Amino acid sequence: MQHSRNLLPDINSPDDIKKLSVRELNRLSDEVRRQIVSVVSGNGGHLSSNLGVVELSIALHYVFDSPKDKIVWDVGHQCYAHKLLTGRYESFQTLRRQGGIAGFPKNSESPHDVFNTGHASTSISAALGLLAAERIQGGKGHAVAVIGDGALTGGMAYEALSHAGHLGLPLIVILNDNKMSISRNVGGLSKYLSRLSMKAKYQTFRRHFDSMTKKIPFVGDAFFSIVLRLKRAVKAVFYIDNFFVDLGFEYVGPIGGHNIQALLDVLKDVKKLNRPVVIHVITRKGKGYSYAEYDPDSYHGVGSFSIEGGIENTAGINKNIDEKDEGLLPSQNLIIRKSFTQCFSEALMAIAKDNKKITAVTAAMQTGTGLSDFAQNYPDRFFDVGIAEEHAVTFAAGLAANGLRPITALYSTFIQRSVDQVIHDASLQKLPVIFALDRAGLVGADGETHQGLFDISIFRSVPNMTILAPTSGNELKLMLEWAVNREQGEIEKFKFRNSGPVIIRYPKAFCPEEVDAFSQPLEKGRGVWINRSGKKDVCLVFTGSLYREVKEAQAILKDKGIEADLYNLRFIKPVDEDFLTDIMNDFKLVCFLEEGIKEGGFGEYAAAMSQQKKCKAKTVIMAVESGFLENDALGTREELLAKNNLDGRSIADKVSCSL
Ligand SMILES: Cc1ncc(C[n+]2csc(CCOP(=O)(O)OP(=O)(O)O)c2C)c(N)n1
């Protein structure tokens, strides 16, 4: 049958969805899917998760009245259908581009995005807060949290479930169970949910079976008693307590998440309940786009790709946003350079070969943090703890306290979750936990929730902490070896309790070409000179990730007749202050450059020290100044560097006007 016109372009708000029949809603879901695949294939983005929640998003907007009813999307990476249905059909073309619409919910973008998300496991707490506020103020609106089985591995979700069960408010938690986090979901919870699904299916089967057998005349009752015994045996296999019910929730499910009619029926019923409820919805990640459906992991986050050929058959290097690296210009991409993630992965493999104490810990980011090779080769020494950064850190501290050398690989933005664990469990006990902090600095299109801007400021003040920033692959390897082997005698003597944690922070970028300076042995607290002209006009003191930019600035300055020497800091903490003081007495102008927030960063510390020691040089600090980069955190890393005056041209301009 030929459909006269598409429905999606006329959906200007959820009210327009409510006018459609179920048949039309199904048509709408096809159109939404096609639109998502089309735009993501051009702009990159989170594909599999979004394709999995199309019917769920439509059903939610059909039954509830957003934004009066509050829908909170956990992580928020699956909000594309929600955006398309809430007045953003036209602007969806600009997804993740500078000045365009964000890939995550943004309240500044639409009132339908009631709560901004990005980091996992916050939705139940937020929705409960929204609902409690609604009731206190006499409102009757509903609140719905949509949380994936991956996000439900995060501890915060349990704190919220416990509180919600206690409050007894009619919170609706939709558990979107697709058995996947980014990769296959891990842990006891994942197994529990499978058993819960089986149990619920068994109960549905039992209800049908009972009513059917009882209806058979004469035989019915006798047959029923015979099978009762059989049923008990079956029940012993399937019966498990329902965790959600025990916490005070109603449990409904499992429901097929691609069946709009079933979703509408359940949501309408649940809307009438006056107590908290968990609706267990089973969905398929990547649904409707065969490449993503059969390989949801690879299509979790993608760069641009050909719709017909998929990412494997896309010309050029595909830039997979969560798993691999993006951020360099295509022409640079063609020179096959290794990313910092790849270099970390290789360095770790080299060290782990002969050192059985090396263990690796990740919080649901095995591939993204470059731990896949390690996991494959050393499964006994590899731990994916789920989306549980707090646990990851204290668990690693436990490993270290009992003699192992754990390397915990996290994104800079996600270690924010574990500030207390880093301080209280690792630093205070001087435990040698190594943190490989990937995506440190400006990361591009995922927006402000994913930038890695705070780690220097947060952790510089923590006692017993070491923070290193490699400039290249070779330097990253040197730093990892140093962190593993440093003060070995002391560590052995004090049963590993005398060295403290080490953070090695590196960007989401490709490594530059190696120069000799990168391979010079590490000296605690000291950096290395990339060049010394002897002119003593300008010194650019930079942290690893900005090497390419300071090199460019140096060339621009040279053209203007200004000689700038480059000093690669290596150690952000501790710092050999005498050495740094000499530099600040030697040069006319010292410019400190770091890819992190300015406040509380290295530059501020160094400038204060310079003032205190009455050093001769004028100091300039170049770092990220604008807080959360609000409304300006989309685009590539290069674009964000330029926006924040950390590109070569801006550095050169700042230096020349400061002389
Ligand atoms: C605190 C935190 N750690 C890690 C991530 C990275 N991350 C983004 S999505 C995701 C998987 C989420 O799985 P799930 O909740 O099941 O949603 P699905 O993608 O399967 O729909 C992870 C680990 C994050 N967003 N927040």
Short synopsis of the structure:
41% of the residues lie in helices and 14% in strands. It has 659 residues and is α/β, with parallel strands linked by helices. Thiamine diphosphate binds at residues 49, 52, 75, 77-78, 119-120, 148-151, 176, 178, 180-182, 285, 363-365, 387, 389, 414, 417.
What does this structure look like?
The protein has about 650 residues and is of the alpha/beta class. The chain folds into three domains: about 240 residues, Thiamin diphosphate (ThDP)-binding fold, Pyr/PP domains (Rossmann fold, 3-Layer(aba) Sandwich), CATH 3.40.50.970; about 170 residues, Thiamin diphosphate (ThDP)-binding fold, Pyr/PP domains (Rossmann fold, 3-Layer(aba) Sandwich), CATH 3.40.50.970; about 130 residues, Rossmann fold. Helix content is about 40%, strand content about 15%. It contains 26 helices and 19 strands. The strands form four sheets. A seven-stranded mixed β-sheet has the order 9-8-10-11-13-12-17, with helices on both faces. A five-stranded parallel β-sheet has the order 2-3-4-6-5, with helices on both faces. Strands 14-16-15-18-19 form a five-stranded mixed β-sheet, with helices on both faces. Helix 22 links the parallel strand 15 and strand 16. The longest helix is centred in the first third of the chain and has 28 residues. The radius of gyration is 28 Å and the shape is globular. About 5% of the residues have low confidence. The site of thiamine diphosphate has 24 residues, from helix 3. Thiamine diphosphate (TPP) binds next to helix 3.
